[in-house]
Design a protein that fits this description.
Elements: H1 2-10, H2 12-19, E1 22-24, E2 35-39, H3 46-53, E3 58-63, H4 71-83, E4 86-89, H5 95-109, E5 113-116, E6 128-129, H6 134-142, E7 146-152, H7 154-157, E8 171-174, H8 190-208, E9 212-213, H9 217-231
Parallel strand pairs: 1-8, 2-5, 2-7, 3-4, 3-5, 6-9
Antiparallel strand pairs: 7-8
Protein name: Lysophospholipid acyltransferase family protein
GO molecular function: acyltransferase activity
Pfam family, one: Acyltransferase
């Protein structure tokens, strides 16, 4: 009830009036049953516009830090993420990754839509980067289709590091569902998982015509951080 109230009464109408989001390919989202919506990731706002623009309820896996803030700001952030269908996950790896997988499978097991960013983090420069294989494992274990989604101009409206959005139009392009039933029972094969993940990334690249680089976005971010640290003036005298 809280989700729908925020979507159609409190948050949704305001965001639609200000940013006038458009969508192409709405018919490609299954009217019922579980599916994974695999999206490129340009901005924090991606997780707001996509759930807002589709008719069905969906959930995104969001880093747990957004749910653990203190004080009024922490409470407001937590309420906002819950209202937009975000589910907290620990992205530290190991057992945390397994827990994240189980959280996603739980959503799919209920016949709902699950949003995933295959790149694992926001693109630092608008390039589409190599996908993480967790999405493939979820798709094969849950036996659900994967729907490619391309967010358009959300990075311009709310760039990384900016607290308040700029006013501008954003768009969403929904591609045709990808069927991986031919790999049923092979979710334990890492070569199959990589093949499925790469197929998803190819679909995203073709749909959005983004420049693609076969390296993890997190690796690029680490390189950029190291380069910035090297350029920073030394505090030593």
């Amino acid at each position: 009830m809280f989700y729908w109230l925020m979507k159609y009464v409190v948050i949704g109408p305001v965001i639609k009036a200000v940013f006038r989001p458009w969508m192409v390919g709405r018919r490609n989202i299954p009217a019922e049953g579980a599916a994974i919506l695999a999206s490129n990731h340009l901005s924090f706002s991606d997780s707001i516009f996509l759930p807002l623009m589709i008719d069905r309820r969906m959930a995104f896996l969001a880093k747990s830090d957004y749910f653990t803030g203190k004080g009024l700001k922490g409470w407001a952030t937590r309420m906002f993420f819950q209202a937009t269908g975000q589910l907290p996950i620990d992205r530290s790896g190991g057992k945390a990754s397994e827990a994240s997988l189980n959280t996603g499978l739980g959503v799919l097991g209920r016949g709902e839509l699950l949003g995933i960013y295959p790149e694992g983090t926001r693109s630092p420069d608008g390039t589409l980067y190599r996908g993480r294989t967790g999405i493939a494992r979820m798709a094969l274990e849950a036996r659900v289709p994967v729907v490619p989604v391309v967010m358009v101009d959300t990075g311009a409206v709310m760039p990384i590091g900016q607290r308040l959005p700029r006013v501008g139009r954003v768009g969403i392009v929904i591609g045709e569902p990808l069927d991986f039933s031919r790999f049923e029972g092979m979710e334990g094969d890492r070569y199959v998982l990589r093949s499925v993940t790469d197929e998803i990334m190819v679909a995203l690249q073709r749909l959005g015509e983004q420049r693609y680089e076969d390296v993890y976005a997190s690796t690029v971010k680490d390189r950029l951080a190291s380069a910035q640290a090297a350029k920073a003036p030394s505090s030593r005298h």
